[in-house]
Amino acid sequence: MAVLIREGSLEEVIHVVEQIDEFVHKETVESLSSRIEGKKSLVLIAEEEGSLLGFKVGYQLDEHTFYSWFGGVSPLARNKGVAQLQLEAQETWVINQGYKHLKVKSRNQFPAMLRLLLRNGYLIEKYEKKEVLLESRIHFIKQL
């Protein structure tokens, strides 16, 4: 599989979001751009032969910390290493920008993402309990 990870557009992110049923709240270009507006940000796209497979959107929290905010992989590309490639590309970019920490949140309902983060040296920083246990958030941090 020759997956290309590259910087992309919010329109491409939305194209992938529409393929992912787990995202109950569907973001729009407007909602995404309002979140990252005025912040140093990175939009990564995973593609293979013109097909958009995944995305990762993050932005600067402060001069030392980058936040990996929103990401996903199309069901058609799952278990093929796409999320790992996106994570590695984002980490490389973040390190090259001089950040010291990379933060990310996930939920109990996404066990594959939780395993990916733990496997890649992310540490649990905080647990945010929600009424519906599957929606509880786990906050991770990685020292770079």
Give an overview in words.
It is globular and about 40 Å long. The chain has helices spanning 10-17, 29-36, 82-96, 111-119; strands at 4-7, 41-48, 51-62, 65-73, 101-107, 123-128, 137-143. It contains 4 helices and 7 strands, in the order E-H-H-E-E-E-H-E-H-E-E.
Task: Provide a compact summary of the structure.
28% of the residues lie in helices and 37% in strands. The protein is of the alpha+beta class and 144 residues long.
* Biggest sheet details: 7 strands, mixed
Helix-and-strand structural type: alpha+beta
Secondary structure: number of strands:
7
- Radius of gyration from the CA trace? 14 Å
Count helical runs. 4
Strand content: 35-45%
Low-pLDDT stretches are: none
Order of helices and strands: EHHEEEHEHEE
SSE layout and pairing:
Elements: E1 4-7, H1 10-17, H2 29-36, E2 41-48, E3 51-62, E4 65-73, H3 82-96, E5 101-107, H4 111-119, E6 123-128, E7 137-143
Parallel strand pairs: 4-5
Antiparallel strand pairs: 1-2, 2-3, 3-4, 5-7, 6-7
List the defining traits of the structure above.
alpha+beta, 7 strands, 4 helices, globular, 28% helix, 144 residues, 7-stranded mixed sheet
